[in-house]
Amino acid sequence: MSARSTSLTVREATEADYAEIARITWSAYLGAGYFADAEHPYMRQIADVGYRAARGTVLVAERGGRIVGSVTLMAYGDGFEQVAREGEFEFRLLVVDPAVQRSGAGSALVAEVEARARRAGATAVVLTTGEGWEAPNALYPRLGYERAPELDWPIPETDIMLPVYRKVL
Question: Is the dihedral of CA 140, 134, 64, 89 positive or negative?
């Protein structure tokens, strides 16, 4: 059975999902070589799914009863956004389990973010990603996002600068 042959569901995460979301986040970031180990300060921060969920909405993609991806979204003014401006939604930490990447889970999560943003009356969706991260930097333009370098965001207390993409709704 292929990864695409089982239907995909996108739903809000529950506390019971947090450990699996953290595992997928570590696997995706470390597996792609974005960070050398899980002890990097940013890796420790993004593994705290409860922190994210208290400040935004964490969604999961589920296939065959198994979580295969996740994303965190927030509206401007929620307090967890980094680059969203008034009237915009932002998403961060889009991850798909490396075992099933390129199976449609990432695109489905982004589609749900955009649908929620539209329902809330947002004018655009923005996101941050990593410099030189090939897969994300290929995905976002394919989904209609354009680079917005004037919004590029430095992660506090690190040497990391995150490129920003934006899509007008």
Answer: negative
